[in-house]
Amino acid sequence: MTIAVMSPDDMAALQARAYQHMPPWSALALAEMIASAHALCVTDPQGFALGRVVLDEAELLALAVNPDHQRHGIARTLMNRFETTARTRGAVTCFLEVAETNAPARAFYAALGYKGIGKRGGYYRQADGPAIDALVMSKALTLD
Ligand SMILES: CC(C)(COP(=O)(O)OP(=O)(O)OC[C@H]1O[C@@H](n2cnc3c(N)ncnc32)[C@H](O)[C@@H]1OP(=O)(O)O)[C@@H](O)C(=O)NCCC(=O)NCCS
């Protein structure tokens, strides 16, 4: 299921502005992910969260908020909607990967209760410069 009010083109443009620690997705890659069977996409006029729910696991694949509108609770609201919808679809745990160097996102996920559970070495390839490790984080999804 997808709850989207933003087109893949709009999402790609927003993500290209927001992503500084990893390459943004193309509009085509976003459209294909949104159209896939297990996709879960929630959007706000200034941001989006995209992932999938398979059986009892949710995975967040992309999250971005317009840099001009950050620190106003938009991502927190997006993630609340993402997690609640994932929970209603049967997920009991949500997983994500974040670049080890992405301090703002790591602080954000920690504020939401995500904990580091592992590391993927060299996960984020860069055109120039060394590949960056990804921190794997997870959170139990509970019914409030
Ligand atoms: C990470 C991101 C999605 C957060 O979006 P946001 O809408 O600004 O986040 P919120 O306003 O909902 O923040 C909620 C809480 O998270 C924490 N937080 C968010 N951004 C933070 C930052 N830059 N530094 C430290 N803590 C931060 C704070 O605890 C914040 O609460 P507060 O503002 O009351 O202190 C946004 O910075 C972004 O788009 N970054 C670029 C893309 C990216 O890195 N995505 C993640 C890919 S894994």
TrEMBL record:
It comes from the Bacteria. The keyword Hydrolase does not apply. InterPro entries: Acyl_CoA_acyltransferase, GNAT_dom, YpeA/RimI_acetyltransf. Keywords: Acyltransferase, Transferase. The keyword Acyltransferase applies. Residues 1-142 form the N-acetyltransferase domain. GO terms for molecular function: acyltransferase activity, transferring groups other than amino-acyl groups. This is Ribosomal-protein-alanine N-acetyltransferase. It comes from Primorskyibacter flagellatus.
